[in-house]
Write a structure and sequence with these properties.
Elements: H1 2-50, H2 54-82, H3 84-103, H4 108-136, H5 142-146, H6 148-170, E1 178-179, E2 182-183, H7 184-190, H8 193-203, H9 210-215, H10 219-230, H11 236-248, E3 259-260, E4 264-265, H12 267-281, H13 284-296, H14 302-326, H15 332-354, H16 368-386, H17 389-399, H18 406-457
Antiparallel strand pairs: 1-2, 3-4
Helix pairs in contact: 1-2, 1-3, 1-4, 1-6, 1-7, 1-8, 1-10, 1-13, 2-3, 2-4, 2-18, 3-4, 3-7, 3-8, 4-17, 4-18, 6-7, 6-14, 12-17, 12-18, 13-14, 13-18, 14-16, 15-16, 15-17, 15-18
Length: 470
Amino acid sequence: MSTTHTQPVTRQAHLGHVVFISAAAAMGGFLFGYDSAVINGAVTGIQKHFGVGNGETAFVVAIALLGSAAGAVAAGRLADHLGRVRTMLLAAVLFAVSGIGSMFPPGIEVLAAWRVVGGVAIGIASVIAPAYIAEVAPTAYRGRLTSFQQMAIVLGIAVSQLANWAINQVAGGESTGHLGGIQAWQWMLGVEAVPAVVYGLMALAIPESPRYLIADRREPQARRVLLEVEGEGADLDARVAEIRAVLESTRKPRAKDLLSSRYGLLPIVWVGIGASVFQQFVGINVIFFYSSFLWQSLGIDESDSLLISLSTSIINVIGTVVAMALIDRIGRKPLALAGSAGMAAALTAAAWAFSYRHGTGDTATLDDTHATVALIAAHVFVFCFAFSWGVVVWVLLGEMFPNRIRALALSVAASAQWIANWAIAVSFPDLADWNLSATYLVYAVFALLSIPFVVLCVRETMGRALEDMG
């Protein structure tokens, strides 16, 4: 009798512990999403407060992404030198000081500098969370647990938009309105310090990666962690031997380990870079960085534009839940292909609707019919991205590389993602003024091109142990 009841309870307990560990690591993803998207609500206030135009604004928005690229490059080395948990703690500190610094900038240049600090934290979090979760998660649950990263990102985006809208409302519907003597846009940027502290506390409560512990010759601790995450029935001797064999057959990766005499980089690294670039070149972060600016450029007031931003972020969360439910059932490639087709259609519809915009800047307008099409298309686009590329790319980057180069290759791929993100972010305001419809048509073309890329280049990783990746 006791055996019948104990085994399911034990399994449930260890799985609950794994979920907690994964959620704690993914808190970095929450801050990643929050820091990335919170600027959306502050853009108008920054422009008014500092008296700058679209070019300077785009620079402040996009400069964080160059910091993210640098953070992503450094993250692999930091993770291998300091360990996964200490690297998370470093990211938490950087998020906190960036939020406070961005809240009180004496000038636009100082604001840009604090945005770079936050960007470095984002880059570190973008690498360390999927790598850590992939290393502690049991194979059967790895896809769903790794997708916690994307769920945390979209929740961070949603919470930032909710906070922006709420602060804007309390400040009288203006991002330059005052709360306690501080302008609303400053509060929007500063509130990030609160979840940053929570992230740091949660990182202190989780164990180090067993792979890092074995590499650091701390096998007893690694065994304890493996027992915690894989349960009483796990063959710890076999798991430790498997991990040790992989580690002993390799050495700490160096940059030249990613090189190929024929292709410049190893083909698998190019695939990771390609997936990262396609994820950004469909224009998803235009929605999260500039949706307030975008809808205002179509004649919608600031308060309503923030509400639309909130609604798209909620759709983003819903799509991510769908991805988490499906990714370990139907696989990574089918989700990516379905999302690519849906994004291409939605972006094409948005491009058609935007072609009917009249005027530019504050005088721009769009009739009700085409505005409705644009709104629906934007929401469909976000949903298609969320259930596919939003989750799939982060899961793939945590799984697809061989053990001997995983952390370093993931850093390179994530860095490429941030550079692509920067290119989209810095170019959008000027492109929107030039031809908003053509800009969205370009994004639609990239969504279409991602289909043959997935078919020809991406290998399915569902159900494969990390030690089998080669």
